[in-house]
Specification:
The structure is a single chain. This protein is mostly helical and 504 residues long. It has helices at 9-40, 43-63, 67-75, 81-108, 110-118, 124-149, 153-177, 182-207, 214-224, 228-249, 251-288, 293-326, 334-346, 355-358, 364-387, 389-414, 421-443, 448-468, 474-489, 491-499. The chain has one domain. It contains 20 helices and no strands. Residues 1-10 and 490-504 have low confidence and may be disordered.
């Protein structure tokens, strides 16, 4: 029987909110902690942290041998709990071995790597701890992907919230209480992610029988290894802006850029959470939707396109107000960075479609990623040379737009989705023009009260667009309100359900 996108609206919204609650909590934690951290840690140290984190993402990403990119896809090939257990434990064991090997190499070469990457070997401790934190986060994400794919939204929310809250608490205590500076930031992240990983591992060990099998691991590696160059190149591409700013400008400029990126990254994390909601359903329709699946998927995704750009829109328009609240005057250059990068993150919607992975044509991935890295590096380098940190953001946006276009065309070649063209054009054209208009008004020196009035009008126009699309309606708003109230009232019960274990 064909699977269609039809489902109980209240249940769909409820499940979506359980995935989105951790994002809301993470943003609240960041809003509370960032003003403390930016006033106790200089911009240069933020730059060192940004470069160390970029190294962990780049080198550590290769440690998983591409398994993190294909695990969710392969999860849906199995329905029996023991088969899913064998896939999970086999993949986690292989990824852990990869992290261990790359960690030993990093330990041995820590001084020269820190000296080359950060400009001084005094930050080699930050490099090592950031790498360990990246390993804990990477391994934890396999278990979180299981919960998400198994539609255990309650368990996913509980552990995600615990991770974000503990990270914020540990960082503030270590920085403000123990005066550890940037070391406190990376130690706090490691302690939180490592602790949640241990709890998850204990829970899964109790509820899901241990199993190891070469067949699912080999099948995953068959898909993952061809995209390993893509993982490396993608990590380089997404972090090349920080590398180049640190080397072509200064460590302080990299720190300012990192703050702007951290604010804009709220939109990226929010969009990823939305992606968690629709992607399993898209996979399900691809595998079981029949001849009508391309059209059903297109209709199903239109509201998600609007909702996924909503947070990026808010940051693009109101980044000035956010930065002025979250950071002291020395970081105000980050206002433009946050605006431009939020436009970039909002434009990544089409690049998140799973068409290439579903069609098993992963050989396209390294080709696209390598091309994107070359273009991104060139654009970012030119942008830094001409305009400094804000130029890097513009270069990232331009390269990202080209990459998203190429990914869209290849994805349609692999599996054609019948998009609702008129509605999708309205969403992304309004989103882009709103951000660009806000930048133009600010660059022209528009008086703040007039600028603020224009921003409010722009926001009203975007909400009207949502109403025209049939998304922002009294009925939907009422349903969202009821779901929020119900979610708050049942938070305790969700926690008990989450602790009941992985559903069989």
């Amino acid at each position: 029987m064909a699977v269609t996108p039809a489902q109980n609206p209240a249940a769909a919204v409820s499940n979506s909110f359980r995935f989105l609650v951790p994002v809301v909590v993470a943003n609240l934690v960041q809003i509370v902690t960032l003003p403390v951290l930016t006033r106790l840690i200089p911009a240069e140290d933020f730059g060192a942290w940004a470069l160390a984190s970029a190294y962990a993402l780049t080198i550590g990403g290769c440690a998983t041998l591409g398994l993190s990119s294909v695990y969710e896809r392969n999860f849906f090939q199995y329905s029996e709990p023991r088969a899913r257990a064998a896939l999970l434990y086999s993949v986690v064991a292989c990824a852990a071995a990869g992290w261990l090997v790359t960690g030993m190499v990093t330990w041995w070469w820590r001084a020269p790597v820190a000296n080359w990457l950060i400009g001084t070997n005094h930050h080699q401790g930050v490099l090592l701890v950031a790498f360990a934190g990246g390993a804990a986060t990477s391994l934890k994400d396999f278990f979180m992907t299981y919960l998400r794919s198994d539609e255990d939204a309650g368990g996913f929310a509980i552990y995600s919230i615990a991770d974000k809250v503990l990270t914020g608490v540990f960082q503030v205590v270590l920085v403000a209480g123990f005066h550890l500076g940037i070391q406190g930031v990376v130690l706090g992240q490691l302690a939180a992610s490592g602790g949640v990983l241990l709890v998850l591992f204990a829970r899964f060990s109790r509820r899901l029988p241990w199993a190891f099998a070469w067949a699912p691991l080999a099948d995953s590696l068959k898909l993952g290894l061809p995209i390993l160059p893509r993982v490396l190149v993608a990590s380089l591409s997404s972090n090349i802006d920080k590398y180049l700013i640190g080397h072509l400008a200064s460590l302080g400029a990299a720190g300012v850029y990192a703050i702007g990126q951290r604010v804009a990254n709220i939109a990226f994390v929010y969009q990823d959470a939305i992606n968690f909601v629709y992607r399993p359903k898209v996979y399900q329709m691809m595998f079981h939707g029949g001849d009508t699946a391309p059209r059903d998927i297109g209709r199903y995704l239109t509201p998600f396109a609007y909702v996924s750009t909503l947070c990026a829109f808010a940051i693009a328009v109101f980044s000035e107000e956010a930065i002025r609240v979250l950071a002291p005057g020395g970081f105000y250059v980050a206002i433009g960075v946050a605006t431009v990068l939020s436009l970039h993150y909002g434009s990544l919607f089409f690049g998140k479609m799973p068409q290439i992975f579903y069609a098993r044509k992963t050989y396209w991935v390294p080709i696209l990623t390598f091309g994107a890295t070359i273009v991104n590096g060139a654009f970012v380098a030119v942008g830094i040379a001409w305009f400094g940190p804000i130029g890097a953001a513009w270069g990232t946006l331009a390269a990202g737009a080209l990459n998203s276009t190429a990914t869209y065309l290849v994805g349609q070649h692999c599996y054609r989705i019948d998009w609702e063209g008129r509605r999708m054009t309205a969403i992304f054209a309004t989103f882009a023009l709103s951000g660009l208009l806000t930048l133009a008004l600010r660059s022209l020196g528009t008086p703040y009260l007039l600028l603020l009035a224009a921003k409010v009008a722009i926001a009203g126009g975007y909400l009207w667009l949502g109403h025209w699309l049939g998304i922002v309606t009294p009925a939907n708003l009422g349903m969202v309100r009821d779901v929020i109230v119900g979610f708050v009232r049942q938070a305790g019960r969700l926690g008990r359900v989450a602790e009941g274990g992985v559903r069989d």
